[in-house]
Amino acid sequence: MTSTMNWKDLFTEAFAENGFENDEIAKIYRIEMDVRAYFDFGGIVPENLKLQNIEKDGKEIRYFWESCTTHARCPFCGEESSVPAKDYYTKPIQDIPRDMLTVYHIVRFQKFHCENNDCECDKFNERFIEFTEEDARKTIRFKEYCIDRSLGFSCNGAQNELRREGAVISNDTIMRYVKAEAVKEIESNLTSDNVKIMLIDDINLRKGDKSTGCTVLMDGETHKMLLIIKGITKEAAKRVLERFPSVENLSRDRASAYSSAGDDCGKTQSADRFHLIKNAQQAVEEAISEVLPVRIYIRDGDGWVSTESDNEENEMPIFFVPEHIVEERVALAGLTPSKAQKYRNTLKMLELDSKGMKTANIAQEMNITIKDVRALRSTAVSTLQKVDDKIAAKVAAQNSGGIKTVSGEGVRPSNESIVEPYRDTVIELWNSGESHRAIHPVLQSLGYTGSCNAIYQFVLKLQKEVPDEIRQTQTRTVKKN
């Protein structure tokens, strides 16, 4: 068994051997304790606590403190009392470990009588809230130390590290500290009135599992995390935005839920940097895929060489359908929103699959589950065939009964359309690769007052009436460069 060393006994014995009297030893010892308390725990342990003794063994080091408080405030009624009860309450309070030893402060608190006759409490313990919380067995700074360690590792990792340092702590206790601190931080954030720019995005707690989706909100100026809430719906985002009336600008991704929530709350919105770059990159990729030849040649001396292998059997085609063509086919087929989304996901899955991506990577890229990717792959042929059949049926109906509008109105020639005055502009922009949605604002700048759909109907009629003048709608397959 490891023997316990008692500071007071060792101190007294050493000074007695050197000829000091008991009164002198007592005075020097008091000075020694005050100086040690100041240098070791100044600003940590309250001044009203006086260090009395130190004990140490192979596992622990214990500091014994006594209170010299002359008055205390009743925690129940708030009345200040100066009537001690001549009674004490002693408890150990764990502090940050030192020299691989567990550190305890054995504190003897005084008890006071409440001088308020109307108070239900007759006797109460004094409290030092800057040192330790009520009924707590750890110092404030030790709790903060545990939280800091957990943020660097994890609660389980922090437990292992702290135990190696000598602390007596469990990962469950550390987790409680972290959650309690998080609650305080959230309460503080919810009452903040100086957030001007809000950043909002979604995240899945489990990769690929939409049911674990959460909304993340940050202060755009300080980049401080404000909240993480469960759900990625418009209602969830709106409830949070309403708690921050000071927000003027909302930076978001392309999610319609966040866009609608921002509109309802009257926030000025902008796309975040990541999605601006992603949109630009996607637009460039689509444009390149539409206009670049399958085989590209570069100058080599007096001749030209291909950037691809001459072995056609080794060339792997990349499946790609430009976005505006996808939307045209969705409109032509008259797909419902759910079927249209499945069609878009199928095309995207085939594109990523043709690039050699694995199922798990496709799921991550599309933000869906692996199970959904497999379902899209198993029904891809039937999904594409059904869309082709719907388009073929509509074309057949048009051929038999004349050109009809998307809305099902009767046949009218293109020269009676509201778009006819802008015929040359429409043909030029359409043949250059622009969609009817892109053409619409151009015509508006020229005085056009019709709808975007009228332009699309006009193009359909031109494709039937003057097929040589206007590009036909079609998908395209390109090969890897």
Key words describing this protein structure:
disordered C terminus, single chain, five-stranded mixed sheet, 481 residues, 44% helix, six-stranded mixed sheet, Nucleotidyltransferase, domain 5, alpha+beta, 17 strands
Question: Can you describe what's shown?
Answer:
The protein has 481 residues and is of the alpha+beta class. It folds into four domains: 133 residues, no CATH class; 80 residues, Ribonuclease H-like superfamily/Ribonuclease H (Nucleotidyltransferase, domain 5, 2-Layer Sandwich); 64 residues, no CATH class; 90 residues, no CATH class. Helices cover 44% and strands 21% of the residues. It is built from 16 helices and 17 strands. Strands 1, 2, 3, 6, 7 and 8 form a six-stranded mixed sheet that branches. A five-stranded mixed sheet has the order 11-10-9-12-13. The longest helix is centred in the C-terminal third of the chain and has 22 residues. The protein is elongated. The termini are far apart.
Lay out the secondary structure.
Blueprint: E1 5-6, H1 7-17, H2 22-41, E2 49-56, E3 60-67, E4 72-73, E5 80-81, E6 83-98, E7 101-113, E8 123-125, H3 140-152, H4 155-165, H5 171-190, E9 197-204, E10 213-219, E11 225-230, H6 234-242, E12 249-252, H7 256-264, E13 268-271, H8 273-291, E14 297-300, E15 303-306, E16 317-320, H9 323-333, H10 337-354, H11 359-366, H12 370-378, H13 380-401, H14 423-431, H15 436-445, H16 452-465, E17 476-479
Parallel strand pairs: 3-7, 9-12, 12-13
Antiparallel strand pairs: 1-2, 2-3, 4-5, 6-7, 7-8, 9-10, 10-11, 14-15, 16-17
Helix pairs in contact: 1-2, 3-4, 3-5, 4-5, 6-7, 9-13, 10-13, 11-12, 15-16
